[in-house]
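Working notes for the structural subgroup meeting. M.R. asked for a predicted model of this chain before we commit to crystallization trials. I am recording the input and output together here so anyone reviewing the notebook later can reproduce the run.

Input as submitted:
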Amino acid sequence: MGELIFVGLGLHDEKGISLRGIEEVKSADAVFAEFYTSLMAGLSVKELEKLVGKKVSVLSRQALEEEEGQLILQSARKGKVALLVPGDPLIATTHVDLRIRAEKHGIKTRVVHGASIISAVIGLSGLQNYKCGRSVTIPFPEMLIPETPYKVIAENKKIGLHTLCFLDIKAEEKRYMTIKEGLQQLLAMEKRKRQGAVTLDTLVVGIARAGSQEPAVKAGYVKEILNHDFGAPPHSIVFPSKLHFMEAEALITLAKASEKIRETVK
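Returned structure, recorded in C-alpha cell form:
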C-alpha cells in the first residue's frame, strides 16, 4: 500500500507552504490540490508547480466530495500521494472524511500542517485565543437566512467567549461573501430574534486577506464596519465578547477601534 500526505498551503499564496511540505511534495508520485474550501487570492498554480517541481492536478468539489476522493485513493494505493489544501489540512471536514477513508483502505496517512485562518485572525486582531468559543460559517442564503450563526454568537456571548465567523465561498461561481453581506444577514436575523446578539451598536472585527502582505484589519461597531472598505476577499468576522484590558488596547492600536471600547473592559 502507498501513502497519502495532507499538506497545508497556508493562507494567501504558494509561498505559504512549509519547507517540510515542499520536501514531501517533491518526493510524491502524484500531487493533487483543491481550492474550493478556501480562497487563496495570491496563489498561482504554475508558480506552485515551479516551487515543488511537480505537476499539480486541481480537483473539483465533485471529485473530492461526491466521488468520495476515489481518484486520490486509487493513486495512493500504488504510491505516495500529496494532497495540497488551503490553510491547515484537516480544518475542513471534507479532508477528515478522506483521511478516514484512506486509513480504512489500509493507506497510511500523514499531515503537514500549515497556517490556519483560525490563528491568523486572532493574531491580527490581538484578541486572546483562549477566550474564543465555537466558530461558525455564515452561508449564502438559499431560501431562508439560516439561524445557526446568530445562535452561536449569542451563546458564546453568554459565556464570555469570542466568535469567529467564516464567510461562505462558492469557488465554482467565483462568489465570496463579504463582511458587509455577512453582517447584513445577522442584522436581519436580529430583527426576528431580538436577543441583542448583533445590533448596529455591537462591537465587531473585520479582517480581509489574512496571510498576505497587506491584510485589512478594522474593529468598530457594526454601523461603522458596514460601510468600511475592506477590499478584495477573502473576508472574516470576529465578534468579541467581554474584553481584557490588553485586548482593548490591541483593538485600538492594531485594528483602529474607537477609544470608547475601553469602557467595555471587564
